[in-house]
C-alpha cells in the first residue's frame, strides 16, 4: 500500500512529512517538516495555520461521513421493530459494508498520523490536541457503525432462518398427519377378498370415522407439542 492510499507520518533521510488523505474531496495533502519549518507538497513554504486549516477541513469531512453512515443505519435499524422491509438493506448490504470498512480504515490512519505528528512536532502539539481527540472519537464511531451493520445483517439472517425452520416444521407436521391416513386408505383400497369390515353394512362409515378420530388425535397432539415448544 503506497502513501497515496493512506494517511500517515513518514520519515525520510532529510526530512519528515505527513500525508493526509481526504474523504469528500479529490485532493490529498502532504506537508514536509524540515529545519523547524513546514513546506507544502510543491516545495513552497507553508505554515502552522495552513496545516491546521487542512486538518480541520479533513476532520469536518470525516464528521459529515460518520453522520451520513449513522443516519443510514438508524433507518435500517427500524427492522428490529418490524417497521421496515429488509429487502432493500439486503440489496445494499455488501456495498454499504464495503464503504464503511473502507472509511474505517481511512479514519484510523488519519488518527494515527495526527497522533504521531503531535508527538513528533512539539510546536504543533497544543494546536493538534483537540483534532487528535476528535479523530479518535470519529474512529470509534466508525468501528461502531461497522459493528452495527453486521448486527443488522445477523438479525435479518436470524429472521430468515426462523421462517425456514417454521416452514419445515409445518411440512413435517402435515406429513406426520397424513401418513397414517394414507396408510389406511391404501390398506382398505386393496382389491383382495376377506378384507376387514368387508361384510359390515356401515364399514365405510366406521373407517371414515376412525380416520377422522385419528386425524383429530394427531392434530391435537401436535398442537399441544407446538405450544410447549413455544
TrEMBL record:
<dbReference type="GO" id="GO:0046873">
    <property type="term" value="F:metal ion transmembrane transporter activity"/>
</dbReference>
<feature type="transmembrane region" description="Helical">
    <location>
        <begin position="168"/>
        <end position="190"/>
    </location>
</feature>
<dbReference type="Pfam" id="PF01544">
    <property type="entry name" value="CorA"/>
</dbReference>
<protein>
    <recommendedName>
        <fullName>CorA-like protein</fullName>
    </recommendedName>
</protein>
<keyword id="KW-0472">Membrane</keyword>
<dbReference type="InterPro" id="IPR002523">
    <property type="entry name" value="MgTranspt_CorA/ZnTranspt_ZntB"/>
</dbReference>
<dbReference type="GO" id="GO:0016020">
    <property type="term" value="C:membrane"/>
</dbReference>
<keyword id="KW-1133">Transmembrane helix</keyword>
<dbReference type="InterPro" id="IPR045863">
    <property type="entry name" value="CorA_TM1_TM2"/>
</dbReference>
<keyword id="KW-0812">Transmembrane</keyword>
<feature type="transmembrane region" description="Helical">
    <location>
        <begin position="202"/>
        <end position="225"/>
    </location>
</feature>
Amino acid at each position: 500500500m503506497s502513501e497515496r492510499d493512506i494517511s500517515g507520518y513518514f520519515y525520510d533521510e532529510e526530512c519528515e512529512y505527513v500525508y493526509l488523505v481526504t474523504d469528500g474531496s479529490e485532493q490529498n495533502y502532504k506537508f514536509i517538516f524540515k529545519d523547524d519549518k513546514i513546506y507544502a507538497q510543491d516545495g513552497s513554504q507553508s505554515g502552522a495555520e495552513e496545516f491546521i486549516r487542512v486538518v480541520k477541513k479533513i476532520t469536518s469531512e470525516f464528521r459529515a461521513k460518520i453522520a451520513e453512515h449513522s443516519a443510514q443505519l438508524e433507518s435500517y435499524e427500524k427492522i428490529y421493530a418490524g417497521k421496515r422491509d429488509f429487502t432493500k438493506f439486503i440489496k445494499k448490504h455488501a456495498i454499504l459494508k464495503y464503504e464503511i470498512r473502507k472509511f474505517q480504515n481511512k479514519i484510523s490512519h488519519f488518527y494515527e498520523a495526527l497522533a504521531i505528528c503531535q508527538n513528533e512536532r512539539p510546536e504543533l502539539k497544543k494546536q493538534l490536541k483537540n483534532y487528535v481527540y476528535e479523530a479518535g472519537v470519529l474512529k470509534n464511531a466508525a468501528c461502531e457503525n461497522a459493528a452495527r451493520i453486521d448486527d443488522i445483517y445477523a438479525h435479518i439472517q436470524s429472521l430468515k432462518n426462523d421462517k425456514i425452520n417454521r416452514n419445515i416444521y409445518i411440512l413435517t407436521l402435515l406429513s406426520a398427519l397424513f401418513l397414517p391416513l394414507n396408510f389406511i386408505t391404501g390398506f382398505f383400497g386393496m382389491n383382495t377378498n376377506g378384507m376387514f369390515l368387508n361384510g359390515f353394512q356401515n364399514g365405510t362409515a366406521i373407517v371414515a370415522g376412525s380416520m377422522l378420530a385419528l386425524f383429530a388425535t394427531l392434530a391435537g397432539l401436535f398442537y399441544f407439542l407446538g405450544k410447549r415448544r413455544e
